[in-house]
Amino acid sequence: MTQARALPDDATEWWIYLGVPALYLLTRRLLAWHQARSQGTEHPVRAAFDDEEPQETGAGAAAVGAFRSYRQLLGFAAGAVVVALVAALTEGGVRLALMCTLVPVVVVLLAYLDFRRARTHRLGHGRT
């Protein structure tokens, strides 16, 4: 009986896959820190970790799960599809090269777009 390939066999692959959410979180925190520092906050690191969005209730809150809009949901879905395609359709050196070049760009771009959307919404300029 042949078992389908489900989990990586190599420790390097595990580090790459675990690095995707870590890179996203690090990018979000760095962007929040940079914004707090440029606004002159007394403790920018503390402000970066307190940068959670308040949960809205009411008729104006059009949230889709944890996402604020369908555009944000589709962006994350497209990013996940890119990462999954790179992981599923490539092997060896090509996979490593793409996971170290294309995937970080996609993850940082999604973190930036998510941060920008949250910042715009916090400032009251966003559409709900």
What can you tell me about this protein's structure?
The chain is mainly alpha-helical. Helices cover 67% and strands 0% of the residues. The chain has helices spanning 11-38, 44-49, 70-89, 92-123. The longest helix has 32 residues, at 92-123. Mean pLDDT is 74; it is low at 57-61.
Percent range for β-strand residues:
under 5%
Helix content range: 55-70%
Report Rg.
18 Å
Low-confidence stretches: 57-61
Question: Can you give me a brief rundown of this structure?
Answer:
It contains 4 helices and no strands. It has helices spanning 11-38, 44-49, 70-89, 92-123.
List the helices and strands and how they pair.
Layout: H1 11-38, H2 44-49, H3 70-89, H4 92-123
Helix pairs in contact: 1-4, 3-4
Key attributes of the depicted protein:
mainly alpha
